[in-house]
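Technical annex B. To support the medicinal chemistry partners, we prepared a structural model of the target in complex with NAP, based solely on the information shown next.
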Amino acid sequence: MRLAERPQPKPAINDVLVEVHAAAYVPTEIDWPSTWADRAGKPKTPSILGHDLAGVVTALGYGTTGLSIGQRVIGISDWHRDGTLAEYVAVESRNLAPLPGDVDFTVSASLPISGLTAWQGLFTHGRLQSGQTVLAHGAAGAVGTMVTQLAREVGAYVIGTGRAADREKALDYGAHEFVDLEHDDLEDIGHVDLVFDVIGGDIQERSATLIRPGGTLVTITGLGDIRPVEGLSVDFVVESVPAQLTEIIQRVRDGRLRTNIDAVAPLDDAIAALNPTQRRNGKTVISIRP
Ligand SMILES: NC(=O)c1ccc[n+]([C@@H]2O[C@H](COP(=O)([O-])OP(=O)(O)OC[C@H]3O[C@@H](n4cnc5c(N)ncnc54)[C@H](OP(=O)(O)O)[C@@H]3O)[C@@H](O)[C@H]2O)c1
């Protein structure tokens, strides 16, 4: 990674140009094919990373409706286009939601990918109902803390997992109980209605066998070979859905949802902040205009 001067992007049809105030990214982005190729598969190097954004609209593309210049916005930029770890980004307006004036840009930038991934995994794909049991893997992580809180809010019983050091944080974010994947026996929890997998591999496959008939395995890391025998398996990539973003922002405003920020750094310090020498403990937010 390096900091570089690049031309200001131009908003295309139905885009807006956003002056980015804060941005965040998913550490695995560097390995995603979409980081390095456009939608036609043509190489895209150098690539601007980051897709979470909070900022202000400064220009509209041809034919863009629904957002206006000066409006505060939040959202996820397209995976194949240049990203949000920049002073300006051109984004499809359909990927953005209005951001109320009382929500801080730094907090906002930490929410779109983690919050929407949790929302869509639990409600769109997992069809979670009150009274059901959710196994929330990586419950102290960026996605897992959102999964735990949203599942608990709808009246689900949440079993969080993670490393031994994650126990307190997972319980603090609302998990009813915690399984230390390094020392406890996952199979001791019995059966669950929904597995929300953020880890993959052996943990995902062992979890699939714990799903009740009619239950669902939702994963964001690709499906393995072992699937629930009498249930659904869904592997998905999060989409930016403005109505869901508005729901998430509303929950942050009224205190139902707490974000999970590990570190905040200015753009000049972004490379060190995005490549920490110690274990991450939530989102790293880059404050582009502090
Ligand atoms: N498909 C999608 O739309 C989508 C969206 C968002 C994220 N993702 C992917 O989902 C994954 C999680 O994202 P995130 O942002 O929530 O990451 P994160 O903040 O690092 O959270 C993951 C948590 O799971 C823990 N964990 C991982 N492997 C574990 C293991 N074997 N045993 C115990 N704990 C383990 C991690 O601990 P350690 O850090 O110690 O490993 C961390 O606490 C990433 O691979 C990301 O690329 C996919």
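Notes passed to the chemistry partners:
The chain has eight helices and 13 strands.
The pocket of NAP is lined by residues 26, 28, 113, 117, 138, 140-144, 162-163, 166, 181, 198-199, 203, 220-221, 237-238, 279-280 (CB under 6 Å).
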